[in-house]
């Protein structure tokens, strides 16, 4: 039984999902994988089911009906992982923009005292490959904007590559997490810090997908930028349990 589970939400990732699963299982540490598939019409879920025959103890699949949002996918996965007593719970994209090799570095950061380790594109400059300049600037300045509004020094607020120690997810009240899109990533980091958890950033190189279709859009970033103001205001009237 591994103490570490990698949660990967999918929607139409048939070009990437098998390669990603095999890559994670090839690493020197025995990670488990949980795929949360939102009814992919391209057959992503069927590929995972076939691979479960090969990896029956390590590969898990939760299928949902339709696109219900990134945040709800991760919360579904968090609850699933907590029930099964995993100690380290990861978020990762399926498209290889996150290098699976970095899972080990994120886990080591949590073993060495971090409660949440973020795979950060911006802690040592701008480490992004194959993104158009406009998208790089939008992402970079969105995180900078969130830092200004929240007053919390996290350089990559929108990062979706993370390791949580289970105590973080046991403490956060998921019913109070309001965002379901990419702003979910901002809200989870902000909430963890407000609870007093030690959040660290681990430098990574982010490489844009080479297969499949991106789900990111300028609308998603705009929603995150506007929503963070309301998140900050709401925090003034909320009590956070201090660990």
TrEMBL record:
What molecular function does GO assign, one term? dolichyl-phosphate beta-D-mannosyltransferase activity
| Pfam families named among the record's database cross-references | Glycos_transf_2
* Keywords assigned by UniProt, alphabetized: Glycosyltransferase, Transferase
All residue ranges annotated as the Glycosyltransferase 2-like domain in the record: 6-172
Q: Does Glycosyltransferase show up as a keyword for this record? A: yes
Q: Does the keyword NADP apply?
A: no
Biological process terms from the Gene Ontology for this record are:
glycolipid biosynthetic process
Gene3D superfamilies reported in the protein's UniProt record: Spore Coat Polysaccharide Biosynthesis Protein SpsA, Chain A (3.90.550.10)
**CC per GO annotation:** membrane
**InterPro entries this protein is in?**
DPM1-like (IPR039528), Glyco_trans_2-like (IPR001173), Nucleotide-diphossugar_trans (IPR029044)
Q: Which PANTHER family does this entry report, sorted A to Z? A: DOLICHOL-PHOSPHATE MANNOSYLTRANSFERASE SUBUNIT 1 (PTHR43398)
The text of the family note is: Belongs to the glycosyltransferase 2 family.
Protein name, entry field: Dolichol-phosphate mannosyltransferase
